[in-house]
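Re: the 386-residue chain
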Amino acid sequence: HPAMSVYSIIDYGRMLQDEARTGAYVEALERHVTSDSVVLDLGPGIGFFAVVAARLGARRVYGIDRSELVEIGRQIAARNGVADRVELIRGDSLELEMPQRADLMVCDVRGILPWGLGSVPAVIDARRRLLTDGAVILPRRDFLYAAVTEQAEDYGEQTAVWRERPFEVDIEPGRDLVVNLRRRVRILPEQLLGRPAEVARLDYATVDSSDMAGSVELAIERSATAHGLAVWFDCEVHDDLGFSNRPGNELVYKQVLFPWSEPVALEAGDRVAVDLAADFVNGEYVWRWSSRVERDGRVLDEFRQSNFFGVFPSRESRAARSAEHRPGLSKRGEAVVAALERMRSGDDLARIAALLVERFPELFETVGQAQGFAGELSIRYGRPIG
């Protein structure tokens, strides 16, 4: 979820150093912010774009993010003399209302690919509940591209050890997980085996589904050993403003390698049919990529992969998720229930902590431990403050 930032303060510094990305958004704001503008920065982190909008004269600017870094954003707003017009809210955008609807929204919340971090569901929700009709949304569109790539060094680094029998131990079952995990890597233009093609596009003003699916056929233009699919996006921030993290562009995002289960020796003239999909499940994206390699009408190789297979649950986890399982509560689970019940009754954290120490001495040796436990529950499940 974009309102649940996964970025650190160092990450935000790196993103701000990416002048192509940051400059495109700043120029778009310069074109659209007026003295009457009410702006929403969705997932602002340190609130940089919120402050920019306020400095450009926006009447009111709101930012919503679950990251603790909104506190730094408040300090930045104060240092820039716009704290009276910038309100950064720590919380989940799906659960919050705003005093007024915004007529401009900035939502640079994609991560390394547009369908990531749970951003699309929050964008859809914000557009429906928090924006005026016809509000300007930055960015306007993202375009997802794919190409077949050779990536011998990274692919070998990640996969080779699983077949090397270190100290004569056969560890190959781990390889099946590794080849189902997409990776953020730096891919060079000369590593592509043919021209890229657009797989899907995300229009922020009209998107109504959290999921994505696209298909494309890629022509191989030179002979080489391929290791998977290079995937990236072009961003249309607004009108003629935008940027791309295509191979060769030194942006902060890099590119994404969707590896194949095995390397494939390709020849010029081969064709690769690709299906790429991202399904939003339980708050996270499950990516699926299928590749069918053909030569002269014959199928050479076919792979069906997913990051779902990159996480191998234990038999205990599988049993706990089965429809027939009747779960009971652990002691910690009982403590969670007890704390939430007292929160619903209106008790303060001091009383809740005292109750937890009394009822669960095996879990909490001190009131401080219990209060920390209850405080985390308050942050996660409590009503927003302010």
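The longest strand covers residues 224-238.
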